[in-house]
Amino acid sequence: MLLKAMQALGHWRRPCSSYGFSALSLSSPSLGRGRGSSPSPRFPAFSVRRRHRGSGAVRARATALSGSSPDTAHSATPVGIQTSGIVKKINFCQWCGGPTKHEIPDGEEKMRAICTLCGKIAYQNPKMVVGCLIEHDNKVLLCKRNIEPSNGLWTIPAGYMEIGESAAEGAIRETWEEACAEVEVLSPFAQLDIPRIGQTYVIFLAKLRNPHFSPGPESSDCQLFALDDIPFDSLAFSSILVTLKLYVQDVKNGRPRFHYGTINKRPGSSPSDIRAYTLDYHLQS
Known about the structure:
The protein is 12% helix and 32% strand. It is mainly beta. It folds into 2 domains: 2-33 and 125-284, Alpha-Beta Complex (Nucleoside Triphosphate Pyrophosphohydrolase), CATH 3.90.79.10; 88-123, Ubiquitin Ligase Nedd4, Chain: W, CATH 2.20.70.10. Strands 7, 8, 9, 10, 11, 12, 13, 14 and 15 form a 9-stranded mixed β-sheet that branches. Strands 1-2-3 form a 3-stranded antiparallel β-sheet, with no helix packed on it. The radius of gyration is 20 Å and the shape is elongated. It starts with a helix and ends with a strand.
């Protein structure tokens, strides 16, 4: 759906913002990677059905998969997707400040914080993280984090999407803030859901508009890495490890794909153990 929505944008552009970088530029309606690119790939069809009402799990089946990888050997079989995650307890109403009670509202299935004064229900929704996987001279641009969590570890430029911007605009902004780099988005590369912590990553392939980059306030270093030199043992998050592994595999296979998957951390694992995960429900265009 994301790729189709961006295809409809065509040659859409907007004026430069105060961040000092050029806004999103889509080079062609097919979102190809420059001249001579192949037509946009079609997404595999899939269906989702609820297994039990209120069970907190659904089953999904992927069809029309075009290839597999070591992470996707079982992608064509039904996969249980857990919908439970970490939910913060809300004790006071964000609208009137009144105390809340925690009940399951009529017609719903999950516990919610309900204000005892104004009656409004506080819904907690996932956060969207957007970023750019930047290609330049057969290398990728990584930033060393200068803030917690994962201070001193490497990541791609990425961060939380802001109100009033598109996912691509947010990815461009984050790249400017973390790497002082002006980029052009080429195509969406991956959507990675992390239900346990309520985050969805949307990663775009991008290229540098010029070869200039430097660490922003949240980075202590920025470097271009050849694929064989990517510091896989010093990456900040499981999502970044998955993204870079998928990208390296695509390069080896000779063409980029669009990836969707769910990252589930292994039970009992430490948040800092970025390899303690499974990539479930992996779909590729």
